[in-house]
UniProtKB/TrEMBL annotation:
EC numbers: 4.2.3.1
Coiled coil: none
Stored Gene3D superfamilies: 3.40.50.1100, Threonine synthase, N-terminal domain (3.90.1380.10)
Superkingdom of origin organism: Bacteria
Cofactor(s) in the UniProt record: pyridoxal 5'-phosphate
Residue span, Threonine synthase N-terminal domain: 2-80
Name recorded for this polypeptide: Threonine synthase
Lineage, broadest ranks: Bacteria, Pseudomonadati, Pseudomonadota, Alphaproteobacteria, Sphingomonadales
GO BP annotation list: threonine biosynthetic process
Length: 463
């Protein structure tokens, strides 16, 4: 498989190079040149497969020629061996049509582990025996940071610099990052929002002087391998609920549009998906874009679902490119200059069939947490609650099962959960003595100069 940039002006890359590179040199995002597709019979044959075997079948078309089936199986077995549930991503029934897909059984308690545990394995495999020193630069609103740090802490050949918005992540999220004291882990709290952090990361990739000095790589969902790994659980869940004979809808708590884009890829690969419900909090740019074509940024408002306090959704570019059927460099550069754009008619019409959207406020979120607890005894986190609220308000045919992606363990957001439900979730024992450990991080102004100089002083340049 070869990978092309959404902006059409970067070299085509193979899977290995796309994984190690992250962002394309023209500022675009890498996507496969074509979508591999499964027949209905092939999808039906996924029934009864373990998570690892499903993962091997779904991802194999994307990874050749750099990995063969056995190598991919080995990596998946190691990556998913660290999950605390035998099913890796179990389904939990809430009522006669609503289900939760629990994606938080990995080491850092959020769905990011599903992709980042694999990405850590891929980095190790692709760097083995060589002299490359990767400089990973990432931005996090809380969950990517901890999952990426867990995946690469202590690995030879990798340094990770992770930017988080100071004071805007939960205490558990912060400590999961800042108490990892491995010498290759560098945590930076910046004054600003997640969008500011993400813009700084992209600016470093797009600065030829900086990017030329270091072998930069990405752990955010701008890296194609992240999304590839997330496609798997759409197949795994849908097949358990009757696919391909029965279409299934998914409600996805959304910020950077990575998780829901993985659902779009699953549909492109032949999975019968009834609807993808894009559920945002009150930072609703994606809901506005999908419902009215208006993709214009505003100010980020902090919420109790902080991981989704995002305005510029990186992966929306991948969808717009696919719907346009041609590179969209001009459209994206126009957006970056004006921080606003209108979707074209082709993009709006193309999205309308598969996507629905909803913006859920604090009352809707709290009500969903209470409903899940009263109806099914399930304590859910605020992000999952936003997905569930959107699922329950979707108006879809009642015969269609709706799977809400449960993206984080409730203990990561214990205060908000307790306020809504009266129940205080406890951090699972596998996370250890998080609140006793020493923390280490630096605080910087959210300026390019400050952050790029900090990294340049510590990262190992190319030979
Ligand atoms: C708990 C949680 N839910 C949902 C999201 C949104 O996912 P995405 O950015 O892939 O849309 C995030 C952050 O990405 C998150 O950390
Ligand atoms: N919610 C995310 C934001 C970054 O998203 P990513 O999927 O692009 O890494 C976080 O928790 O950091």
């Amino acid at each position: 498989m070869r990978y092309q940039s959404t902006r059409g002006a970067a070299p085509l890359l193979g899977f290995r190079e796309a994984t190690l590179t992250g962002l394309a040199s023209d500022g675009g995002l890498y996507v496969p040149e074509q979508w591999p597709a499964f027949t209905r019979d092939e999808i039906a044959a996924f029934a009864g497969l373990s998570y690892v075997e499903t993962a091997v079948r779904v991802m194999l078309p994307f990874v050749g020629p750099h990995l063969d089936e056995d190598a991919l199986r080995t990596l998946c077995t190691t990556a998913y061996g660290r999950f605390a549930h035998a099913a890796v991503t179990p389904l939990v029934q809430l009522d006669d049509r609503n289900w939760l897909l629990e994606l938080f059984h990995g080491p850092t308690l959020a769905f990011k582990d599903v992709a980042l545990q694999l990405l850590g394995q891929l980095f190790e495999r692709f760097l083995a025996g060589g002299s490359t020193q990767l400089t990973i630069v990432g931005a996090t609103s809380g969950d990517t940071g901890s999952a990426a740090i867990d995946a690469v802490a202590g690995r030879i050949g990798v340094d990770i610099f992770m930017l988080h918005p100071k004071g805007r992540v939960s205490k558990v999220q912060r400590r999961q990052m800042t108490t990892v004291l491995a010498p290759n882990v560098h945590n930076i709290a910046i004054d600003g929002s997640f969008d500011d952090a993400q813009a700084l990361v992209k600016a470093m990739f797009n600065d030829p002087r900086f990017a030329g000095r270091f072998q930069l790589s990405a752990v955010n969902s701008i890296n194609w391998a992240r999304l590839m790994a997330q496609v798997v659980y759409y197949f795994y869940a849908a097949v358990r609920l009757g696919a391909p004979d029965k279409p299934v809808a998914f409600s996805v708590p959304t910020g950077n549009f990575g998780d829901v884009f993985a659902g779009y890829v699953a549909a492109k690969m032949g999975l019968p998906v009834a609807k993808l419900i894009v559920a945002t909090n009150i930072n609703d740019i994606l809901h506005r874009a999908l419902s009215s074509g208006d993709y214009s940024t505003g100010t980020v408002t902090p919420t109790a679902a902080p991981s989704m306090d995002i305005q510029v959704s990186s992966n929306f570019e991948r969808l717009l490119f696919d719907l346009a059927g041609a590179p969209i460099g001009d459209q994206m550069r126009g957006f970056e200059a004006a921080r606003a754009m209108q979707l074209t008619n082709a993009q709006r019409d193309g999205a309308a069939g598969l996507f629905a959207s909803n913006a859920v406020d604090a009352d809707g979120m709290n009500e969903a947490m209470r409903w899940a607890y009263a109806e099914a005894g399930q304590v859910i986190d605020p992000h999952t609650a936003i997905g569930l609220a959107a699922a329950r308000a979707s108006g879809l045919d009642p015969a269609t099962p709706i799977v809400t992606l449960a993206t984080a363990h409730p203990a990561k957001f214990a205060d908000a959960v307790e306020r809504a439900t009266g129940v205080r979730p406890t951090v699972p024992a596998r996370v250890g003595d998080l609140h006793q450990r020493e923390e280490r991080y630096d605080t910087l102004p959210g300026t390019y100069q400050a952050v790029s100089s900090y990294i340049a002083e510590r990262a190992i340049p190319r030979p």
